[in-house]
Amino acid sequence: DPDSGDNGLLLYSLVGGPTDEFDIDEKTGQVFTVSLAGKTGTFNLEVQAADNGTRRLTAQTTVTVIVDSSSSSNIVMLVLNQKINVVEKNSDEIQRVLEDKLGWNVYVVAIYSEEFERKARSSTDETQIKIIAFDEAHQEVPAEDVKRKLREQKEDIEEELQKVFSASVSAAIGEAPAAPASSELVAAIVLGVLLAGTFLAFLAYILLDLRRKRKYGKQDLVKKVKIMEGIDNPWAVDKNGSLRSLEKPEHMNN
């Protein structure tokens, strides 16, 4: 907007498209994702710019966003020894420096700190910046190539960032945290643990049952031996091999 003062101040907003999955910075017009976990495809957003004049003027355009699931693998983390609120304020300049030194189009995906509380945003002297680079053919630059270039240009990048922050700057490549396990993987792990627990319990039951049977089998055998010991010549057999009568003859009773 060529107007000066408040009349030239533009505010951006999303007026159409999947606004639950995207959002926009009302001051810069930068579009970013809110909730696109596991989704890919093309999304069309209607973006509106409005000035701050008495008779507010507006203009709209369609922004096409292509979400590629492979993008996450080429995101690189850059760690700066600066407070997060200062880094956020100078994000455009950081992007300019990186594009100039790396020779690619660079997009700042996210800026965050290990401190999550708002009151601590100005107290932590370390901020992580997630970036992704694209070449002239609009293809993602592999993360390893971006890291290699960052190492080669480290001194020049730090020197330029010192001018931006008016302070000594250290830039290091960080390691992104491992992706959380998918719900399917978690379910499979839980099911596997439950099945293993059930199998172990069943195995323990069988072993205990066998021990119980052996124990009581021995007790029954002892009882039978004791009973047989009270009978005169219990092992005597007649000619056909059957046990003789266990009753004593009458003359023996006498």
TrEMBL record:
| Localization per Swiss-Prot or TrEMBL | Membrane
Q: Name one GO molecular function term.
A: calcium ion binding
Q: Which UniProt keywords apply?
A: Calcium, Membrane, Transmembrane, Transmembrane helix
Domain of life from the UniProt record: Eukaryota
* Domain Cadherin positions: 1-77
- Show the GO cellular component annotation of the record: membrane
Which PROSITE patterns does its entry note?
A: CADHERIN_2
Q: Which GO terms describe its biological process?
A: homophilic cell adhesion via plasma membrane adhesion molecules
Do you know which SUPFAM superfamilies this protein is assigned to? Cadherin-like
Q: Which Pfam families does the UniProt record give?
A: Cadherin
Would you tell me the protein name for this molecule?
Answer: FAT4 protein
What high-level taxonomic lineage is stated for the organism? Eukaryota, Metazoa, Chordata, Craniata, Vertebrata
Its gene name is Fat4_2
